[in-house]
């Protein structure tokens, strides 16, 4: 990882750190590469597993279908969701994005993240 990072801390001890990730990160589902980048961001948040955020231009957007589902994170803002279209059907709300995140996490604006539990693999290699 490079030295570029953004850190947002709160008085209650909850922290979010966003780092550039220079490794190759891929999402593979059903044998199809859904995302492939060497420009991911890694978001580390108190109490949660690290999450890779992908630039849209490195995601197979033809496989995504916008969902009506939304959620709110008190630390990042409102998330929009996408279904993942596969040969075997639709994986509902498998991908999310913060279109207008809070200022302290603005680096993830427009990036996409995949639920690891809803895809076959998320690989990070050199």
From TrEMBL:
Limits of the DUF427 domain: 25-116
Domain of life: Bacteria
Gene3D superfamilies given in the database record: Domain of unknown function (DUF427)
A Pfam entry, by short name: NTP_transf_9
Stored InterPro entries: DUF427, DUF427_sf
Name recorded for this polypeptide: DUF427 domain-containing protein
């Amino acid at each position: 990882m490079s030295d570029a990072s953004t850190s947002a801390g709160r008085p209650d001890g909850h922290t979010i750190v966003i780092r550039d990730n220079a490794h190759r990160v891929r999402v593979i589902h059903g044998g199809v590469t859904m995302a492939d980048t060497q420009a991911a961001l890694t978001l580390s948040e108190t109490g949660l597993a690290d999450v890779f955020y992908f630039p849209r231009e490195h995601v197979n957007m033809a496989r995504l279908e916008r969902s009506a589902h939304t959620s709110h994170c008190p630390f990042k803002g409102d998330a929009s969701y996408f279904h993942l279209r596969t040969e075997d059907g639709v994986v509902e709300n498998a991908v999310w994005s913060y279109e207008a995140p809070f200022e302290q996490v603005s680096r993830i604006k427009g990036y996409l993240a995949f639920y690891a539990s809803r895809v076959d693999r998320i690989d990070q290699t050199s």
